[in-house]
Specification:
alpha/beta, 24 helices, 17 strands
């Protein structure tokens, strides 16, 4: 078995800490694993190198016992201690941790006091009112637990994009390299870049389908085979992701790819469009026939999807837009937008450093992001209300501004054109913003975010609109507050918020963290039509989070956004001018707005 990488090792160490807490182990031991996980995540050199050179002990908090466990994970991909620990705890307790609001302490209490050892047993206990009677719980907690159980049940078979795309791409690459494969693509909701995925669809063309099927079901990472036929197969990948393969002839390929890409709504319109022209469209072809058929002699010759759309009088519709949300009128009128590419992004305007809850120093962030080819990177650490994230007091903000200027001076002296931007993710609190306007005016980038919502939609909407009306706030962060497959969006009238942003010249963030992808793609056409610009931000807490720009750009494309709609496609000078527009041209550290 191959060894684990840094992220996988950190995840195992973190889970060990959680499992130990479930068992009621010494809190110092629990904390040691949590600290070790953070230390591994924060490494600036390859973990494999540290293991090979026996230098793990140089990492603070990594003693002999942890060094041995980490070495085993890196070299073998297994750890007997971890396997035995998992086996000693009822699976139901671990499953209960997935319910929003339930941590190890509460799960342990529920198990010890009520004997609850599964989600179903917990649901029964809540419905019988037994949870509300426990100290530290109460009626509200009991109600939230029931809501959380329902939420998890609703999304139990769904997966985030970042969980699905990497194994899908690896499997697609393996299929493309097989000698019996002519063409191969991922289809379905993955190709359409939906934020949550049910399963993965592969379409392959081949003259030897049985060989392709045989190779597919034997790929690494496949846990089980659900079904296997002559031209199709279904398997379960690691992580419980279902993957379905359909093998067709190369003549059928463009039609099968379009059909299995979907969406269902898009396909219905396509088929009706074919009928209106005296044709029939299905997964096997576009046929000159008034009846359903698979007769190759009647098939319209289309080598690509572009040919198929052209045969129906349409410009090619990018997969992200195939949701029957206006794409047909635009394709017929040749007005489809040129969608933004992730490579056009020059940096991120919402990120965290080790001054709050980030992993890396200002110097480390500047070096890494410059090396990645970015032009700029805003440091927007949490404000003081986010005490759990080590939010900055105004005094610390002033010290950070000075520190960032010092880093930029060093960059300039070295000839680098990369710059860090000063900023803050300021909490939207009940009576306004967490920092006074005088402090916000000193920052280059101000992101206002609602982290603790009110119970009413009207109040949340009012708070966000009030933040947008502040002259020093350039953008609203993750406005719906959702955590995909974990937490529903806040109660907010987002169209009213968008209207307020349009009226005040405030940008809206597309938070590219794959747990968020917020603002939702369904709302971006409305925002774009209102003239609201988008900032695709990583909300980075560590170096690796820079890759989130890819996910954010994909969602922006799904929201019909172009390069011109996204502010962080601008070079630094133009970005600074844009940052100053709402402030009457004033940008701290850049008085001329240049």
């Amino acid at each position: 078995m191959p060894g684990m990488d840094k992220d996988q090792v950190a995840a195992v160490l973190s889970e060990i800490g959680v499992l130990l807490e479930l068992k009621g182990e010494n809190p110092f031991k629990v904390r040691a694993y949590a600290n070790a996980a953070r230390a591994i995540e924060s490494l600036t050199e390859p973990l494999e190198t540290l293991v090979a050179e026996a230098r793990l002990s140089s990492i603070p908090g990594i003693g002999d016992a942890l060094q041995e466990k980490i070495t085993q994970l890196v070299t073998t991909g297994r750890l007997a201690y971890y396997d035995e620990l998992k086996a000693s705890i009822p699976e139901g307790l671990v499953a209960m941790l997935q319910i929003p609001g339930l941590g190890p302490k509460k799960v342990k209490a529920l198990h010890g006091l009520l004997g609850v050892d599964s989600v179903s047993a917990l649901e029964t206990a809540c419905r019988e009112g037994r949870v509300a009677g426990l100290a530290g719980f109460g009626e509200k907690t009991q109600a939230r637990i029931l809501e959380g159980i329902q939420f998890r049940r609703q999304y139990a078979t769904r997966h985030r994009l970042d969980e699905v795309v990497p194994p899908s791409e690896a499997l697609r690459q393996a299929l493309r390299e097989h000698p019996a494969v002519i063409r191969c693509d991922v289809a379905g909701s993955v190709r359409r870049f939906k934020e949550a995925i049910g399963d993965v669809d592969f379409v392959v063309s081949s003259r030897r389908p049985e060989e392709v099927i045989g190779a597919f079901v034997q790929q690494p990472g496949i846990q089980s085979v659900i079904a296997r036929g002559e031209t199709k197969a279904s398997v379960i990948l690691e992580g419980g992701i279902q993957a379905d393969l359909r093998v067709v002839t190369d003549e059928e390929y463009p039609f099968a790819l379009a059909y299995f890409t979907g969406s269902k709504e898009h396909n219905i319109v396509l088929r009706q469009r074919a009928i209106d022209r005296g044709l029939r469209l299905n997964e096997y072809g576009l046929f000159r026939s008034a009846e359903e058929t698979r007769d190759p002699a009647l098939r319209v010759n289309c080598r690509t999807e572009e040919d198929l759309y052209a045969a129906l009088g349409l410009a090619y519709v990018p997969p992200e837009l195939r949701e029957d949300r206006g794409e047909f009128a635009a394709a017929e009128g040749r007005t489809l937008p040129k969608l933004v590419e992730w490579t056009a992004l020059r940096g991120s305007l919402h990120n965290h450093s080790d001054w709050s809850d980030g992993r890396h120093s200002l110097e480390e962030i500047a070096a890494r992001m410059a090396d990645l080819g970015c032009d700029y990177w805003a440091i927007t650490d949490h404000s003081r209300a986010s005490f759990q994230a080590n939010g900055l007091t105004p005094a610390r903000v002033h010290r950070q501004i000075a520190a960032i200027r010092k880093v930029n001076e060093t960059l300039a002296q070295s000839g680098s054109e990369f710059r860090l931007l000063t900023g803050a993710e300021v909490d939207i609190v009940k009576d306004g913003l967490d920092y006074p306007d005088e402090l916000l005016a000193e920052l280059e980038v101000v992101v206002a975010s609602l982290h603790v919502p009110a119970s009413s939609e009207a109040e949340n909407t009012r708070r966000l609109i009030r933040a947008a009306e502040n002259p020093w706030v350039q953008m609203l962060g993750h406005p719906s507050g959702r955590l995909l497959l974990r937490r529903e969006a806040y109660k907010v009238d987002l169209r009213a918020v968008i209207d307020a942003c349009a009226a005040t010249g405030t940008w809206i963030e597309l938070n590219a963290n794959p747990y968020r992808l917020d603002l939702d793609w369904r709302l971006w056409p409305y925002a774009r039509d209102k003239g609201v610009r988008c900032a695709i931000n990583c909300d980075a807490h560590r170096h690796e989070d820079a890759r989130y720009l890819y996910w954010g750009a994909g969602i922006a494309r799904k929201g019909w956004l172009t390069r011109e709609d996204v502010v962080n496609t601008l070079p630094l000078g133009q970005l600074r001018q844009a940052l100053g527009l709402k402030r009457g041209g004033r940008v701290p550290g850049n008085p001329a707005g240049a």
